[in-house]
């Protein structure tokens, strides 16, 4: 009876861990999609010269970044890429830095700088995907 | 590159070897700027005392800023004399000659700390580009004694003017032309190679604002002296892969 109970507890623990990991992966994918949508919004705002749309895109992007910007890159990196957690964390930090500069540039009526920030965010995304996803 | 242009660069290299600061202004070959002189500055420690070449610890990462306040360079005393008259090629195919190390052992070299691939650079918060000495392993290549950019694993050979030996970097790290004087002092006088400084200032505006108070302040040129520190004392964290 004791043995069966132990096996049951162990199974529950393992399945719970798996469920958490699946949940996290699903959440990460959803966040990535949201980041993409936010980037599209910033880009569209830039093309149509609509600062408000760009700022909204920044807010959305920062919200979607919360999972990445928690210094726990090891949790979401693929197994064979976990060693690169500091690299991934740095890219996340840089995305936030450039995102925060967009509204500042827009308030200074410097669309050129705001678009430069946008392209730098894109570069951070591709930088991480180059390394982690082996583009 | 035209043969005549190549010879011109070669001849320039020979003069630089004799006394680099005799050259003033900018020399062009094809469409690339290969060699640019800046104000001659002396390498000093935090107290302002001159750095003496013979006191540099071999294979240790040192850094100093040159020619701008925010462009940090890596200074190394390599374990042996460097190669000399190394032909290098920048990303648009322009060839130039790197003359080799300075100092009694001809092993002291300095390079820009900005990786030409995606501009990863030495900075105060965390540094992904640095030298890995004898016996140190890297994921970038099998060789030791290399400068590695930990972002995308480009590796450069500092014995050979930082020629690219692995990874996606399109060209060598730009090198700092050093003078070694009879009193054993070290001076930075010029930059050789495609330095990427302007792209760096454009790309890292928010970081420069945070660390130097703005792009204009970060672009300020150094005068007279530049403080030289161990990389470990300059940056909060050195990340090597």
Topology (elements, then pairings):
The complex is a heterodimer of chains A (135) and B (241).
Chain A: H1 2-47, H2 51-64, H3 73-76, H4 85-107, H5 111-132
Chain B: H1 3-18, E1 26-29, E2 32-44, E3 62-65, E4 72-77, E5 86-89, E6 95-98, E7 108-112, E8 129-132, E9 146-149, E10 154-157, E11 163-166, E12 175-180, E13 186-192, H2 197-203, H3 205-212, H4 215-219, E14 225-230, H5 231-234
Parallel strand pairs in B: 2-14
Antiparallel strand pairs in B: 1-2, 2-13, 3-4, 3-14, 4-7, 5-6, 8-9, 9-10, 10-11, 12-13
Q: Which residue ranges of chain A are poorly predicted, with pLDDT under 50 across at least 5 consecutive positions?
A: none
Q: Tell me what portion of residues of chain A adopts beta-strand conformation.
A: under 5%
Report the largest inter-chain contact. A-B, 17 and 17 residues
Number of helices of chain A: 5
Sheet with most strands of chain B: 8 strands, mixed
Shape of chain B: globular
| Number of separate strands of chain A | 0
Strand content range of chain B = 25-35%
Mean pLDDT of chain A: 83
How far is the N terminus from the C terminus of chain A? Answer: 53 Å
Mean pLDDT of chain B: 89
Tally the helices of chain B: 5
Structural class of chain A: mainly alpha
In short, what is this structure?
Chain A is mainly α. Chain A is built from 5 helices and no strands.
Task: Provide an overview of this structure.
The complex is a heterodimer of chains A (135) and B (241). Chain A is an all-alpha fold. Chain A has 5 helices and no strands. Chain A has helices at 2-47, 51-64, 73-76, 85-107, 111-132. In chain A, α1 packs antiparallel against α2, α1 (2-47) packs antiparallel against α5 and α4 (85-107) runs antiparallel to α5. Chain A starts with a helix and ends with a helix. The mean pLDDT of chain A is 83. Chain B is α+β, with helices and mostly antiparallel strands. Helix content of chain B is 17%, strand content 31%. In chain B, a hairpin with a 5-residue loop joins β10 and β11 (163-166). Chain B is built from 5 helices and 14 strands. In chain B, strands 1, 2, 3, 4, 7, 12, 13 and 14 form an 8-stranded mixed β-sheet that branches. Chain B has a 4-stranded antiparallel β-sheet with strand order 8-9-10-11, with no helix packed on it. A two-stranded antiparallel sheet of chain B has the order 5-6. Chain B has helices at 3-18, 197-203, 205-212, 215-219, 231-234, and strands at 26-29, 32-44, 62-65, 72-77, 86-89, 95-98, 108-112, 129-132, 146-149, 154-157, 163-166, 175-180, 186-192, 225-230. Classes of the chains: A mainly alpha (135), B alpha+beta (241). Chain A binds chain B through residues 83-84, 86-87, 90, 97-98, 100-101, 113, 116-117, 120, 123, 127, 130-131, and chain B through 118, 126, 128, 150-153, 202-203, 205-207, 209-210, 237, 239, 241.
